[in-house]
Amino acid sequence: MSQVLVRILKAGALYFGVVFGAGFALGTIRVIWVVPRVGERIAELIEAPIMLAVTIIAARWAVQRLAVPAVALERLGMALIGLGLLLVTELVVVLLVRGLTLNEYIASRDAVSGTVYLALLAVFAVMAPARWSAVTWTDSETSWVSIPFALSLWRVFGP
Fold this sequence. Notes:
Largest sheet: none
Number of helices: 6
Shape: elongated
Number of strands: 0
Order of helices and strands: HHHHHH
Structural class: mainly alpha
Distance between the termini: 27 Å
């Protein structure tokens, strides 16, 4: 496996780990202390801007920490790996830990806070490629990895 691919996989896992860890800690605080006082919708809406900030900071930190080049396909790969890990973890928690079916889980989501949650997932997916530096689509060192990698991601996550 090439160094570039390994770096992308590590960055995606790191991005996921930081955001998931913060979400787990904040979710615990939300459920134990905030929901009983203000209700589930308001508690989730209070948590959302904090998670937005965590997502922005985690994307920037993972890119810098693991030196992910400013190549859009590599950063998109990083983000999609992180998003995939996040969604798989969410499904495992919902299906196995909470004992809900996928339909029950979707039906239990509040329309407002659920929409905000989906928007945060979209931000998570685009934050690494949209990082504030100039991002190119190819780089002479990495284009041979980026394009096949992006195509394989498209096959997995595409329509």
